[in-house]
Write a structure and sequence with these properties.
single chain; about 325 residues; five-stranded antiparallel β-sheet; about 25% helix
């Protein structure tokens, strides 16, 4: 009799826990979007609005409210020259690479400095239209020493596996994928002389300007040494990836962790711009972020990934080839 009573009690406990878990899942969106926690709301809206499914936010909030939350940190980001703390600096003469840990008010991240810009190339998934690859796979495939995620992707088949790089993708002087025809798109490119070129460009102009490597993404953060972000950028707070270049040609890789309240909430576009200015970038641009943001060095993922499933499958990466 006692055994039967214990079994019934355990079933009731399990049923109670299951009920509360289901209730929590159902109520979570309403707590996030309609609750009193403004910073949580800003983070959630920023993450969703810049994802592949921005319409989800509109199920709970008006477009006016979404716009307001996306610019919630405008006043906090009106300055330049962000005081970035550099906790740890590691220079490896064998690879010619310097890595620095950085920390801001709401974020932690990594900066990688590559003195020779001609070592930076675009790596493209071997199976365009079928599946993307992880950043660590790009490193192995190319024999690179380091890499970050690069351009965005579109998803016509709904699989979300990074199979189709968006815009114009160039490797070794050849356009390897183009889904925009001869329309102009914002290009993140490296020419034959190792110069980072950003701005609108068409497929015809790619050939005319002797572009060697390129992906498509936006917005520009620093242009000719000048700030290029208005307000906080209007993209909310999220994990971020960016690339820039200093006057002496040094390429700057930047990866910011995010969506991890106990570690790093994330950065605005203004934060990114300020970091690049702090590193004296003359040109810098935002790359695909969110769960794509990743830095790999010597076969190891250097940042804390937000994606609980590990590395994301993406179509392109910027890789650093050996000296």
């Amino acid at each position: 009799m006692k055994t039967k009573t214990k079994k019934i009690r355990w079933k009731m406990i399990i049923a109670f826990i299951a009920f509360n878990l289901v209730l929590t899942v159902l109520l979570a969106p309403f707590i996030v979007f309609w609750g009193p926690f403004e910073s949580l709301k800003v983070m959630a809206v920023g993450s969703i609005a810049t994802s592949r499914h921005p319409q989800v936010a509109r199920l709970f909030l008006s477009q006016e409210k979404i716009d307001e939350l996306m610019h919630a940190y405008d006043s906090a980001g009106t300055f330049t020259g962000l005081n970035v703390e550099r906790d740890k600096v590691v220079t490896d003469p064998s690879t010619g690479i310097t890595i620095e840990d950085i920390k801001g008010p709401n974020f932690k991240g990594k900066v990688m400095l590559i003195k020779d810009p001609k070592r930076v190339q675009v790596a493209v998934t071997k199976e365009i239209g079928v599946a993307g690859e992880r950043v660590s796979d790009f490193v192995k495939d190319t024999g690179a020493v380091a890499a970050i995620n690069a351009g965005g992707f579109y998803d016509p088949n709904g699989k979300g596996n990074g199979a189709f790089p968006d815009g114009l993708t160039v490797h070794n002087g050849e356009i390897v994928h183009n889904n925009v025809g001869n329309k102009t798109v914002n290009i993140v490119a490296i020419d034959k002389d190792g110069k980072l070129i950003i701005g609108d460009m068409s497929a015809d102009q790619i050939e005319q300007k002797h572009i060697k490597e390129a992906v498509s993404f936006y917005p520009n953060l620093v242009e000719n040494g000048k700030p290029a972000v208005s307000g906080d950028g209007g993209w909310g707070i999220a994990p971020r990836t960016g690339i820039g270049q200093t006057a002496d040609g040094t390429i700057i890789f930047l990866v910011i962790d995010g969506r991890q309240p106990t570690w790093s909430i994330g950065a605005t576009l203004r934060d990114m711009m300020n970091i690049f200015l702090d590193y004296h970038a003359v040109n810098a641009v935002n790359l695909d972020g969110g769960s794509s943001s990743e830095l790999v060095y010597n076969g190891k993922v250097m940042n804390k990934l937000w994606n609980v499933f590990g590395e994301r499958y993406i179509p392109t990466a910027f890789v650093v080839m050996p000296k």
